[in-house]
Amino acid sequence: MSSPVCVFSVPPFSKASMLCATLLVLCCARSPSVGDTGGDHAGTGGAPIILGTGGVSPGSGGASANTGGGGPVTVMKPSSSYPQTAGAAHPFPQGHVFANCPLPVYNTDTVAAAYNNWKAKFVQGNRVIRPDMSSDTVSEGIGYGMLISVYMNDRTVFDSLWTYAQGKQDGNGLMNWNIGSGGNVIGAGGATDADQDIAWALLMAGAQWGGSYNASAMTMIGNIWTHEIESGRILKPGDNFGGSSQTNPSYFAPSYYRVFAKVTGNSGWMAVLDSSYMILAAATGADGLVPNWVNSSGTGVNGPGNDTNGPYFGYDACRTPWRIALDYCENG
User: In the chain, what is the straight-line distance between the N-terminal and C-terminal CA atoms, in Å?
Assistant: First the structure.
C-alpha cells in the first residue's frame, strides 16, 4: 500500500505503492478492526454524501450535507453504487473521519476507477504482476493487493491473492519475496514489509467477512515475531538477513504493532514500536527525511547487495511517511 517522486530510477512497484497508500486513506479512513464496529457507512440511504472543507463527519442516513461553502468537496456515494462482496461488515466506502487527521478531498467514483484500473493492469490470475519486470511477482505487491482489495470489499481478488501467497511460502511460513512468471522462486525468503501487510490485511478480512482469516493472521504474526524480529525489539527486513546492522525504516509499521500486541497478547510488539520510533528519530535528517537503509543507531548503511543508495533518501524511504502517518491519524 507509498512511493512518490524521488531521486533514483522508478522501481517497478512505485505506482502500486502510491495507489495502495491513496486507497487506504480514501476508501475507509479508519481500519475496521480498530475503528467503529457498527458497519455504518456513507450513503446507506441512496443519495451521495457531500462534504465541504469544514470537516464535518458524514452520517449514515445518505442525505447530502454540504459544509464547504464553495470550496473543494468530498463526495461519497452509497455502497450500492459499486459492485462488491455482499454481506460485508464494512462495505466501500466507509468515510469515517480520523481522530487526528482531516478527511481528504476526494470522490468515491475516482477511487473506484483507480481500483479497476489497477486490477486491469496489475492483477493477472491470482497474483499481482510487475509488467516491466517480465511479469514477475513480489510479495510486496501481494501485500498491497490484499490491503487494497479488503478495503474495497473485493473478496474474490483478496482470496485469490492470499491463496497464491500461501502456495509460495518458505520454511518459516512467510512468502518468498520474488516469484517468476512461471511460478519459480527467484528470490527466497520473506520481506518483512510484505509479511506485515499480509498479516494486517488478514486481520481486516476477519473484520470484513469473518471466517478463518483471523486465525491465519495470528499464525502470520507469530511467524513474523519468531523470524523477523531481532532480540525482541529490532525489525529485521527479512527472515534470513538484517537486523541491528541493517534495517529499512520504510518497513516500520507502528500502527500495526499496536494491534498485533492487542490481538496476540504479546506486549513485545510495543518494544518493536518503541525501537522503530527511536531509530527513526536518530535517522531523521535536517529536512525530515530518512535513508533507505540504516542500522539500529540510525546511521545510513548500504542496502542488500551492497546497494550504495542505501544511505540516501529514495524510493524505499519515501514510503516511511505513509506508515507513520497512519499511526498518527489513528492513534495520535
Answer: 21
- Among residues 253, 235, 257, 255, the alpha carbon closest in space to that of 245 is found at 235
* Cβ count near 215 (within 10 Å): 11
- Grid coordinates representing 14 are 512505485
- Asked if pLDDT for residue 14 goes beyond 70, the answer is no
Residue 106 and residue 93 in contact, taking contact as beta carbons nearer than 8 Å: no
Spot the catalytic one: 136, 154, 193, 228: 193
Q: For 300, phi and psi rounded to 5 degrees? A: -65, 135
Residue 55: pLDDT above 80?
Answer: no
Alpha-carbon distances, residue 79 vs 36, 91, 102, 308 (angstroms): 17, 6, 22, 47
Report whether pLDDT(98) > 90.
Answer: no
d(CA 274, CA 203): 22
- For residues 110-119, b (16+ Cβ closer than 10 Å) or e, as one string? ebbebbeebb
**Using only C-alpha atoms, what is the Rg of the chain?**
19
pTM of the predicted protein model: 0.85
Active site residue 140: yes
Active site residue 274: no
User: What SS3 state is found at 240?
Assistant: coil
pLDDT tens, residue by residue, 279-295:
999 999 999 999 999 99
Reported as type and span, the H/E element at residue 123 is strand 123-124
Q: In this model, does residue 90 exceed pLDDT 70?
A: yes
The DSSP line for 181-238 is TTS-EEE-S-BHHHHHHHHHHHHHHHHHH-TTHHHHHHHHHHHHHHHHEETTTEEPSB
